[in-house]
Design brief:
281 residues; alpha+beta; four-stranded antiparallel β-sheet; Triple-stranded beta-helix
């Protein structure tokens, strides 16, 4: 309109006439900022959320960084195929934690995307290495890997999936939601190892308990046998003799109490049935 007062703002993109409209990479990436946040893309519903996930290769010290996409520093980022990385063995006497990082390098010398292996420092209380905080180098921590001095094979329970954390957020965009079927691979592997260890421990305990019971019953049986034999010996010698003396003494007392009739020769008179003839009866 004729009476309009205009205040120019940023907009685009427009056709150039004699190169009067030039756009930078930042201009090209600007629409992402409102439509899609920075982070790792989740995969379509019903498919595993394994974009840029780190897995054990089950091959000594090798790991696999799965293919996948992300928006990092408002730049699109793509790992086009599964990437195998060999983790160095730990030559120290303490454990270290290494990291796998997705990186966008915006510096003039860089202008590239990278998957970075970053080794941590061995320590009695190990922590993962820092990710970059510089303005022109933006990084997401994809995974941590715990490497002990005795480690000769990277198993899944040693890999901590960092996707979905503050250091590596998800993008679910306008359509997709997160499928969690692969998110707990480390926990599943750790649980399997724990279950097997507990099963072996319980089996060992059961065998030890059986042996302990067997030894206990053997010892108790032997102790009872020894006690019983000692009792038998006492009964056959001292106790049996003492018992007979008591019986004889009791017989004398009874005889004195009932006063049976005796002959001049001292013989006790009895009936044909063997019953004593007592005076006054």
């Amino acid at each position: 309109m004729v009476n309009d007062v205009k205040y120019e703002v940023n907009a685009g993109f427009f056709d150039a006439i004699d190169r009067d409209r030039l756009y930078s990479a930042e201009d090209m990436n600007r629409p992402y900022r409102k439509l899609i946040s920075n982070g790792v893309f989740a995969t379509p519903k019903g498919t595993p959320s394994d974009n840029l996930q780190v897995f054990s290769a089950n091959d000594e010290m090798n790991i696999i960084v799965f293919k996948g996409e992300a928006i990092i520093g408002d730049k699109w980022f793509e790992n086009p195929s599964n990437l195998i990385i060999t983790i160095p063995q730990n030559s120290k006497i303490l454990t270290r934690i290494d990291s796998i990082v997705a990186q966008i390098d915006k510096t003039q010398a860089g202008r590239v995307g990278n998957i970075v292996y970053r080794q941590g420092a061995a320590s009695s209380n190990p922590v993962h290495p820092d990710i970059n905080a510089e303005e022109n180098i933006i990084e997401f921590r994809l995974a941590d890997i715990r490497v002990s001095p005795s480690c000769v094979k990277i198993t899944q329970d040693l890999i901590t999936d960092c996707r979905g954390s503050e250091e590596c957020p998800w993008i679910t965009s306008l359509i997709y939601q997160v499928d969690t079927s692969t998110l707990y691979a480390q926990w599943q592997e750790a649980y399997r190892n724990y279950f097997e260890e507990q099963q072996e421990s319980n089996s060992n305990y059961t065998e030890e308990f059986k042996l302990m019971l067997s030894n206990f019953f053997d010892e108790e049986q032997q102790a009872f046998t020894n006690w019983f034999n000692s009792i038998k010996e006492n009964l056959s010698e001292d106790a049996a003799g003492k018992l007979q003396v008591e019986i004889d003494n009791l017989s004398e007392i009874v005889m004195d109490a009932i006063s049976p009739i005796t002959t001049e020769a001292g013989e006790i008179l009895a009936t044909e049935n063997g019953e004593y003839i007592v005076a006054g009866l």
